């Protein structure tokens, strides 16, 4: 009998085309997602070499990072740099025969949201994209990770990727989440626990009762931020929740092919006794809603807590870096998190821009008003998320409450477009990164869950969402 294997081992093994003695492998890639930021040189490389895209039907291109989120974007993109990137992708997709969703297509959206929506992302697949948050697709039990632009070119040309196997890490979240605590709080707590380098060299498998209980949206939120924990990818074994989500998606298999696929997908779980190189265990019942206070996703604190004191950190380098983070954030140690006033709210991104996130926001916003000092925007992750939200009447709740309801895109997650913080503006954000300048020059980002962001928009400062239920 063969040795017990992890889910990661199985998907990896199933895709090895060639293995060298030093462990370098050539992996077959099932799906390639392409966006406008990391693909121009890759297509240019193909053009110069006179090569074609090996499998256009396994490739899907979309614009997301640079697109404006204002309704007048259909009249053209004013920012020249953005327009050039967007036009380049449109041309490259046409020249190389790759399916492409432009900003005018209702299926357009953030690359990691449209893949699952279209059934382009399926369990057991290898999925790559020139984007670090490709880990999102691991929620389906797919081996999905970001690649660099030269690798994008390699995958376009050959449908394969050179890879060395990573180590296996298990993150088990036992028990049930308390009311008001979400998938976002789980992943922020995990990153707080392992640190931003904790997952370096690993692929993380998330398991345990709390993970099993999550919807696909919640699982995507968790896997999305694997990269913030340093891991190459994050995975969750597919189950009935996964199959129910995938069924009837435009590109999902149908009929007999569906039955065969499900049969295979059911084998995609870690064998009893398989070896993990590292195991981390968390108790969901003890998790609070989390707010980041610094400029790294590991700078987490409970909403009931205070801004920590860097002077208490023994390691000098770490102490200095956290002191600098506090200074950048304009905060003083000891301040209660609920006393921190905010100027802006950003609800969206590939972490929390899906329908369930918007429903959570609507539940908080209904019948309430955004604080007059706060500018709060809601950016659906895709055109389909937007249409669904509008079909449910969520847009009316948002607009009546004073939120700005936008068109889909990456938006203020990274400020590569018109949506950005002004210097020193403080933002409660549902995105995944809080680096210096991430949401705009000198902007200050606090990462939170959608419900926490909505509550902060209304109160004008952070509040414990559990007191609002
Ligand atoms: C622009 C892109 C390369 C980048 C990434 O890889 O993650 C972006 O999506 C981000 O979130 O910072
Ligand atoms: S939403 Fe943010 S994290 Fe996601 S792909 Fe866009 S820029 Fe990157």
What does this structure look like?
[4Fe-4S] cluster binds at residues 350, 410, 413. By secondary structure, the chain is an alpha/beta fold. It has two domains: 17-165 and 240-252, Aconitase, domain 3, CATH 3.30.499.10; 292-467, 2-Layer Sandwich (Aconitase, domain 3). 32% of the residues lie in helices and 17% in strands. The chain has 16 helices and 19 strands. The chain has helices spanning 7-14, 40-49, 80-96, 111-118, 149-158, 183-194, 209-212, 216-224, 240-246, 255-265, 316-329, 349-352, 355-365, 383-391, 394-401, 450-459; strands at residues 16-19, 24-28, 31-35, 59-62, 99-101, 126-129, 143-146, 160-164, 167-174, 202-207, 233-235, 278-283, 290-292, 300-302, 344-347, 375-378, 404-405, 426-429, 444-447. The chain has a five-stranded parallel sheet with strand order 5-4-3-6-7, with helices on both faces. A five-stranded parallel sheet has the order 17-16-15-18-19. A four-stranded parallel sheet has the order 11-10-9-12. A hairpin with a 4-residue loop joins strand 1 and strand 2. Helix 6 runs parallel beside helix 8. Residues 64-65, 110, 112, 131, 133, 349-350, 410, 413-414, 431-432 line the site of iron/sulfur cluster (SF4).
């Amino acid at each position: 009998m063969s040795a017990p294997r992890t889910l990661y081992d199985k998907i990896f093994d199933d895709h090895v085309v060639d293995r060298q003695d030093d462990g370098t492998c050539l992996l077959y890639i099932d799906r390639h997602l392409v966006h406008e930021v990391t693909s121009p040189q890759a297509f240019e490389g193909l053009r110069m070499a006179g090569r074609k895209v090996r499998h256009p039907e396994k490739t899907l291109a979309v614009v997301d990072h640079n697109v404006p989120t204002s309704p007048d974007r259909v009249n053209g993109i004013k920012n020249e740099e953005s327009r050039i990137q967007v036009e380049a992708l449109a041309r490259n997709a046409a020249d190389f025969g790759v399916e492409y969703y432009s900003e005018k297509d209702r299926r357009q959206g953030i690359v990691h949201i449209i893949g699952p929506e279209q059934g382009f992302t399926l369990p057991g697949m290898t999925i790559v994209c020139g984007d670090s948050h490709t880990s999102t697709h691991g929620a389906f039990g797919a081996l999905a990770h970001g690649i660099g632009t030269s690798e994008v070119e390699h995958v376009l040309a050959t449908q394969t990727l050179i890879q060395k196997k990573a180590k296996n890490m298990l993150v088990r979240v036992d028990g049930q989440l308390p009311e008001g605590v979400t998938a976002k709080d789980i992943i922020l707590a995990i990153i707080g626990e392992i640190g931003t380098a904790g997952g370096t060299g690993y692929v993380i498998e998330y398991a345990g009762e709390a993970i099993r209980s999550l919807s696909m949206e919640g699982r995507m939120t968790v896997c999305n931020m694997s990269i913030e924990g340093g891991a190459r990818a994050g995975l969750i074994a597919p189950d009935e929740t996964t199959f129910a989500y995938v069924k009837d998606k435009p590109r999902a298999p149908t009929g007999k092919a569906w039955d065969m696929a499900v049969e295979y997908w059911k084998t995609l779980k870690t064998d009893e006794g398989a070896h993990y190189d590292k195991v981390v265990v968390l108790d969901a019942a003890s998790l609070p809603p989390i707010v980041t206070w610094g400029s790294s996703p590991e700078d987490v604190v409970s909403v009931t807590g205070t801004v920590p004191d860097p002077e208490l950190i023994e390691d000098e380098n770490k102490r200095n870096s956290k002191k600098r983070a506090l200074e950048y954030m304009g905060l003083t140690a000891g301040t209660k998190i609920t006393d921190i006033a905010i100027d802006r709210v950003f609800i969206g991104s590939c972490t929390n821009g899906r329908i369930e996130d918007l429903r959570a926001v609507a539940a908080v916003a209904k019948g309430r008003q955004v604080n007059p000092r706060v500018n709060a925007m809601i950016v659906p992750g895709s055109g389909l998320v937007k249409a669904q939200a509008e079909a449910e009447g969520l847009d009316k709740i948002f607009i009546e409450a004073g939120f700005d309801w936008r068109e889909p895109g990456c938006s203020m997650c990274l400020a590569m477009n018109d949506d950005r913080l002004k210097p020193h503006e403080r933002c409660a954000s549902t995105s995944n990164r809080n680096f210096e300048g991430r949401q705009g020059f000198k902007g200050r980002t606090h990462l939170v869950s959608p419900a926490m962001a909505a509550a902060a928009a209304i109160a004008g400062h952070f509040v414990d969402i559990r007191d609002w239920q």
